[in-house]
Specification:
- With 252 residues, the protein is α/β, with parallel strands linked by helices.
- The chain has two domains: 153 residues, Alpha/beta knot (3-Layer(aba) Sandwich), CATH 3.40.1280; 90 residues, Trp Operon Repressor, Chain A.
- It binds adenine.
Amino acid sequence: MRFDVLTLFPEMFSGYVGQSLLRRAIDSGLVEVHIHNIRDWSPDKKHKKVDDRPYGGGPGMVLRVDCVVPCVEAVQAMTDQPGHLVMLTPQGRRLTQTVVRQLAGYPRLLLLCGRYEGFDERIRLLLAPDEISIGDYVLSGGETAAMVIMDAVSRLVPGVVGDPEGPQWDSFSEQMPGLEFAQYTRPREYRGLTVPSVLLSGDHARIAQWRQENSVERTRMRRADLFTPSGPPPTDSPPERQPPEQPGQATP
Ligand code: ADE
């Protein structure tokens, strides 16, 4: 899996990429991370300005189309295989484990991080990115969201998590569509609280049954929304890659 991150703040990634599970994945050649500074594609060679005031007025600054589009095109051309372009924005489809699994199916992801009041709309029209939000709150930029995606996706790359069975049993996985069951380790007793005896029984069938019931009960108590008959919101399929027709475009 190759990640290309397009950002105005490349230095934000050094701590994360240098420390986490990702570091081991990179060292073992399973994952590559390339960080690109959008400023390097600014047409303003002197000040490297990448944003400007919104037409029509209003607060904040908007990321310029003539910086971001050349940056994405140049990064795409860095390998033979163009990547799946993800734009991090609170306006995108919500990130769920289903979406994470979809993203993990691509060999290369470009993660485009915004700042300020957002992206010039023509960036969306020209690049048709897969717009993704990590939740209904506004971050000061897409960088932390890009780290969330790299973390969740790289766990699904075979070999990255030590125990290959591990991610299969995570909450929201196919085996575990709700929340994961309660876990216990030593000591057997602490401040009067004991480990459920079934987990000490060695009876694998009974243990599996207990875990299944515990998972269902936890999900019902904590996240009843995961049981809704309608299933997840209808944002779980990636958009078509072709750019949509541009509004106002003259038809012959
Ligand atoms: N950028 C700002 N807020 C965001 C969010 N909630 N998800 C993804 N990118 C963002």
